[in-house]
Amino acid sequence: MDEVATIEEIKKEFNDEWVLVAVIEENELGETIKGKVITHNKARDEVYDAMKKNHGYTHVFFTGEVPKKGYAFAF
């Protein structure tokens, strides 16, 4: 994905993955609403490694389901 996309579009494209985006647009609360995908992967460490190499303004997030209170995921 080389084009700018909304966070919702990115979440649909890369379901259940960690995603690193270059921030293109934020809302008034400072939340990323548009970005350009730098990398994505099921493995969090791979995305975090890419984040360390990128010195721009970025945002990393997981597109899958967040566990309910009292539950945890094991990777």
Descriptive tags:
23% helix; alpha+beta; 4 strands; 2 helices; 4-stranded antiparallel β-sheet; 75 residues; globular
Describe the structure.
By secondary structure, the chain is α+β, with helices and mostly antiparallel strands. 23% of the residues lie in helices and 36% in strands. The protein has helices spanning 7-13, 44-53; strands spanning 4-6, 18-26, 32-41, 58-62. The chain has a four-stranded antiparallel beta sheet with strand order 1-3-2-4. The chain is globular. The model has no long low-confidence stretch (mean pLDDT 90).
Low-confidence stretches: none
- Alpha plus pi helix count: 2
Q: How would you classify the helix and strand content by structural class? A: alpha+beta
Beta percentage is 35-45%
Radius of gyration: 13 Å
Share in helix: 10-25%
Distance between the termini: 26 Å
* Topology, number of strands: 4
Layout of secondary structure:
Elements: E1 4-6, H1 7-13, E2 18-26, E3 32-41, H2 44-53, E4 58-62
Antiparallel strand pairs: 1-3, 2-3, 2-4
Write a brief structural summary:
With 75 residues, this protein is of the alpha+beta class. The chain has one domain (4-62).
